[in-house]
Amino acid sequence: MAELNDTELIKIYRNPETKHYGFNLIADKYKERLYWHIRKIVIVHDDADDVLQNTLIKAWNGLKSFREQSGLYTWLYKIATNECITHLNKKRSRYLVPIVDVEKELSNSLETDPWFDGNELQKKLQKSLLKLPEKQRIVFNLRYFEEMPYEEMSKVLQTSEGALKASFHHAMKKLEIFLNDD
């Protein structure tokens, strides 16, 4: 079966007789991309699985009111990004630690994570990314790893393209410094 486009998937989902099947097709199409987007933000495999599940639950609950003003992909990434931020905020408040300590914990978890299969250069990049402010890290991940256009990113993050370009530029400059210092 050829891969269905988003409009076809939504149509299958909106048919009461094929609603569950339609959602499963949507989840199957996007879950791997969503997982890796989430993983780059929360770092830990188990946390990424949890956030992915929360993302899919929110998508299931919200899909009936999806107005198709943006692409399905953009809408799902927006949910996933918001769930990542919520997860990190809960982690910070649960441990009553500042953001720097949570990012340090995530950086340390890279060393012991059996699911991380990157080489030393990839590990160094991930640790450097964790030194960035959260918004810059998310913008960098979406632009660099996901190759998401600024127009789509502005819909996901609900901010202007100019602000996103500035965040990406600042992230690149900081990463350059972090990678050269280590």
Protein architecture, described:
Helix 7 packs across helix 9. The mean pLDDT is 85. 77% of the residues lie in helices and 0% in strands. The protein has nine helices and no strands. It has a single domain, classed as RNA polymerase sigma factor, region 2, helix turn helix motif (Rna Polymerase Sigma Factor, Chain: A, Orthogonal Bundle), CATH 1.10.1740. The protein starts with 5 loop residues before the first helix and ends with a helix. The protein is globular. The chain is mainly α and 182 residues long.
SSE map:
Blueprint: H1 6-14, H2 19-42, H3 45-62, H4 72-95, H5 99-112, H6 120-129, H7 134-145, H8 150-157, H9 161-181
Helix pairs in contact: 1-2, 2-3, 2-4, 3-4, 4-8, 6-9, 7-9
Concise summary:
The protein is mainly α and 182 residues long. The protein has helices spanning 6-14, 19-42, 45-62, 72-95, 99-112, 120-129, 134-145, 150-157, 161-181.
